[in-house]
């Protein structure tokens, strides 16, 4: 396959193949691990040509074996793998049987130890004596101890022994695994030596060709499965997106229309605000000029009123002085005329005060000033 997606799938093989736990899959995994280290002849490299035509991976070219022969060879290889699987299954059953026998033996030993422990718990003296007989190395320590102390000491020692036993069992498991690996490597070396000795025979060539073709077919099948899963995921995602696409498009169009309407309204409001600002500026300028003119006019009027008030005040003072002089001249008149002159003087004074109040009231109304003290 020549598409970029196929190349991506070949670089990222599916992870599901590593989770199969059947015996046949284990045998296939062992074969896959062994084959890269197996020497091949020159004819093995040409078993499956690396060239891939543009027409597809399943179209055969000139000089290649037919599909029927390939199927027959694959059936033969599958039979060989089935034999390996049966051998692995029998070996696994033997291991399981051996482990079951070991478990039964350990259960018997555990039961015997439980019986011994029940006997030891019957009395302190008996416990100590039995412990001394079983644990002769602990005799100096247990002679002066009670049964409870002896049991605690034995529990401590037993836990240590159990830990040692677990460590030894773990080491045995590791060594057993290493031994199995070495055995597999030895068997592979033997097979490689046998293949090297029989590399010129037709059977060896056929086996290598079958192995190469089977490996390539397995890799292509895994690649096809991975690509199929990717395509299925993409199709599901696109279907889900197509369901919500129309609703999202309608909502987005409605949002665009609403935003355009709001933008137009904002432009109108902006123009109105600019016009109102210009009008307010013009009105403010006109009011300032009018205020300056009115202020100057009021100042001139106030100065004129003050000047007229001063003149009126001087005239009143002159009239008062003249009235006083006339009063002095008329003091020699009869006493009957004194009261009349006094009334006339009072009337003139009140009249002058009334005129002054009226005048200052007009000035105050014209200027808008507050009443002065």
Automatic annotation (TrEMBL):
GO cellular component, one term: ciliary rootlet
Residue ranges, annotated region (Disordered): 1-64, 312-346
Coiled-coil segments: 89-123
Polar residues biased stretches: 1-25
Keywords carried by this UniProt record: Coiled coil
Alphabetical list of InterPro entries matching this protein: ODAD3
Keyword Transferase among UniProt keywords: no
Basic and acidic residues bias spans: 312-328
GO terms of biological process kind: cilium movement; outer dynein arm assembly
Superkingdom of origin: Eukaryota
Record protein name field: Coiled-coil domain-containing protein 151
Native organism: Carlito syrichta (Philippine tarsier)
Encoding gene per record: CCDC151
């Amino acid at each position: 396959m020549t598409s970029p997606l196929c190349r991506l799938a070949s670089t990222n093989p599916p992870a599901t193949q590593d989770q199969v736990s059947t015996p046949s899959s284990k045998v296939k995994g062992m074969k896959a691990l062994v084959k890269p280290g197996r020497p091949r002849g020159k004819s093995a490299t040409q078993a499956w040509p690396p060239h891939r035509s543009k027409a597809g991976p399943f179209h055969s070219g000139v000089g290649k074996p037919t599909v029927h022969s390939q199927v027959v060879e694959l059936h033969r290889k599958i039979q060989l793998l089935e034999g390996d699987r049966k051998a692995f299954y029998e070996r696994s059953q033997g291991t399981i049987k051996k482990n079951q026998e070991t478990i039964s033996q350990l259960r018997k030993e555990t039961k015997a130890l439980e019986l011994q422990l029940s006997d030891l718990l019957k009395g302190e003296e008996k416990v100590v004596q039995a412990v001394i007989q079983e644990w002769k190395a602990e005799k100096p320590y247990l002679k002066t101890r009670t049964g409870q102390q002896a049991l605690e000491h034995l529990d401590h020692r037993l836990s240590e022994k159990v830990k040692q036993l677990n460590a030894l069992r773990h080491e045995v498991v590791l060594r057993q695994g290493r031994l199995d690996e070495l055995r597999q490597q030895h068997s592979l070396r033997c097979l490689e030596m046998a293949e090297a000795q029989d590399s010129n025979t037709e059977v060896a060539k056929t086996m290598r060709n079958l192995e190469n073709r089977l490996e390539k077919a397995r890799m292509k099948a895994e690649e096809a499965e991975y690509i199929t899963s990717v395509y299925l995921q993409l199709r599901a995602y696109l279907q889900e997106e197509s369901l919500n696409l129309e609703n999202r498009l309608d909502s987005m169009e409605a949002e665009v229309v609403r935003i355009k309407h709001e933008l137009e309204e904002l432009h109108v409001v902006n123009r109105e605000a600019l016009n109102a600002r210009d009008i307010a500026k013009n009105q403010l300028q006109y009011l300032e000029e009018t205020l300056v003119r009115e202020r100057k006019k009021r100042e001139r009027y106030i100065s004129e009123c003050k000047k007229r008030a001063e003149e009126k005040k001087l005239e009143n003072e002159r009239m008062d002085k003249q009235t006083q002089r006339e009063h002095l001249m008329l003091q020699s008149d009869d006493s009957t005329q004194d009261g009349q002159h006094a009334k006339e003087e009072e009337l003139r004074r009140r009249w002058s005060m009334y005129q002054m109040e009226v005048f200052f009231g007009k000035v105050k109304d014209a200027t808008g000033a507050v009443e002065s003290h």
